[in-house]
Structures are given as structure tokens and as C-alpha cells.
Amino acid sequence: MALEHAILVSLLEQPGSGYELARRFDRSIGYFWTASHQQIYRVLGRMERDGWIEVREVRQDGRPDKKVYSVAAPGRSALSAWLAEPVEPESVRHSLAVKIRGAAFGDPAGLIAETERHRAVHAERLAHYLAGERRDFPDSALLDAGQELQHVVLRGGIAYERMTLAWLDDVLATLRRLGGADPDTH
């Protein structure tokens, strides 16, 4: 997937400025497709030159004018064409998993702190997803089609984080057993 497609989806959900778009990436889309603010602004410029998006200047009192981006007809066509293309299943590259396998040739207990750090990051991400679900989808019976699709992606993120936490708990128990450390429950 190109960053352009993620931007088109976000702008179709809600037009906005480059800053607003970058914040949306930080808050939601970025958990599934990451991009720096500089990358987003660079791609917005290219998309504008290619006619995929339109820009409207919004006057602001006491601040520079703001550019609000929305999707133009060629952008909708590009997104429609991309949606019709098959997507290959993603391969997982997991450095921690390689380290865990490599611990057989070193000190398994030496990876406990790193695994705990990963666990804390995933627990925080899960808490963030669950808070977003409570905030954005309090009543699933009232969702429109777009919201239902956003919610199903979020539920996938929640399921992934729960699975990752269960796996990390298994890894920690194994490392502690192999390293002779006392088991610690989470």
C-alpha cells in the first residue's frame, strides 16, 4: 500500500489540513500504516500536483491561512482502482522473536527485561485502542457503513494486541523457567 491510499481514505472520511491529517495518523491510522509528518506533507504536495486532491485556503484570524485538503475525482478513481487490486498477505518481521530464538545460544534470562518492555508497549497500545473504542463506538447499533468498517479494523487491532500480550506472557514464563528466575504473573 502506498501512503497515498491511506491519505485518500483519511480525507474521504473527513477533509482536513495537513496538520489535522498528521494528527489522525498519530491517533489511529498510524497504528496500521505509519508515516512521519514530513512524509505526509511531501505526499500531499505530490497528490495536489497530480490532481488527486483539492486544496481550499481557509482564513484564520491571528494565524497563517490554513490549507484544507479534500479528495478530487482523480483521487477517488485512483483509490477505487487500488481497492479492486489484490493485496498479498503481509509477512511479519519480528526482531524480538529472532532474539528469543537466539537466547538458546546465550542467556534466556537476559531477555526478560526486553520482553517486559515490549509487553508494556503492547499493553499501553491495547489500552489506547480500548479507550478509542469506548469513545468512538459506544453504540455499535447506530453505526453507518463507514463507521462499521473503521470499528472492524479497530477490533482487529484489539485482537492483535491481546494475542501479542498472551504470547509475550508465554515468552516471559518460558524465559523465567529457562533462566531460573521466579515466575512473575501479569
Question: What this model shows, in words?
Answer:
With 186 residues, the protein is mainly alpha-helical. The chain has two domains: 3-84, Winged helix-like DNA-binding domain superfamily/Winged helix DNA-binding domain (Arc Repressor Mutant, subunit A, Orthogonal Bundle); 95-179. It has seven helices and two strands; from the N terminus they run αααββαααα. The protein has helices at residues 3-13, 18-27, 37-49, 73-84, 95-102, 112-136, 145-179, and strands at residues 53-58, 66-71. It has a two-stranded antiparallel ribbon with strand order 1-2. α2 (18-27) packs across α3 (37-49). The longest helix is centred in the C-terminal third of the chain and has 35 residues, at 145-179. It starts with a helix and ends in a 7-residue tail after the last helix. InterPro entries: Tscrpt_reg_PadR_C (IPR018309), Tscrpt_reg_PadR_N (IPR005149), WH-like_DNA-bd_sf (IPR036388), WH_DNA-bd_sf (IPR036390). Residues 7-80 form the Transcription regulator PadR N-terminal domain. Residues 92-176 form the Transcription regulator PadR C-terminal domain. This is PadR family transcriptional regulator.
